Amino acid sequence: MEWKNLKGTGDNQASKPWLDVWKERTNYKGDPPCGRKGCGKAATLGAHVIKVDSYDKSWYLLPLCDACNKLDDPFEKKENVPVAPAAK
Ligand SMILES: [Zn+2]
């Protein structure tokens, strides 16, 4: 399963950081690592991502670092970092 960053979601502001929303929805304790497989950095934000090549076009939240949030290419997700639904 590959994932891709959604573009143009910067204006889609919630009342709190998306990373906090992700933590609440996944019940994740502590500070997550960047969710991209192969990246060793800490997550700095909750990115909006979608599945590549899937009928499921829902938006999901995934913790990423700044660099990985700017990727245009699809990437693999770490299995131990879950996604959360982005819809309210
Ligand atoms: Zn990263």
In short:
The protein is built from 2 helices and 5 strands, in the order βαββαββ. It has 88 residues and is α+β, with helices and mostly antiparallel strands.
Describe this structure in words.
By secondary structure, the protein is an alpha+beta fold. It has one domain. It has two helices and five strands; from the N terminus they run E-H-E-E-H-E-E. A five-stranded antiparallel sheet has the order 4-1-2-3-5. Strand 2 and strand 3 form a beta hairpin. The protein starts with a strand and ends with a strand. The model has no long low-confidence stretch (mean pLDDT 92). The site of zinc ion has 8 residues, from helix 2.
Which features characterize this protein?
5-stranded antiparallel sheet, 5 strands, alpha+beta, 88 residues, single chain, binds zinc ion
Count of strand segments: 5
Radius of gyration: 12 Å
* SS-based class: alpha+beta
Helix content: 10-25%
- What is the averaged pLDDT score? 92
Distance between the termini: 24 Å
Give the distinct bound molecules. Answer: zinc ion
One letter per element, helices H and strands E, the order comes to EHEEHEE
**Which parts are unreliable, with pLDDT below 50 for 5 consecutive residues or more?**
none
Number of helices: 2
Largest sheet: 5 strands, antiparallel
Count of folded domains: 1
Shape: globular
Strand order, main sheet: write it out. 4-1-2-3-5
How much of the sequence lies in strands comes to: 15-25%
List the helices and strands and how they pair.
Layout: E1 2-5, H1 18-26, E2 45-51, E3 60-64, H2 66-69, E4 75-76, E5 84-85
Zinc ion binds next to helix 2.
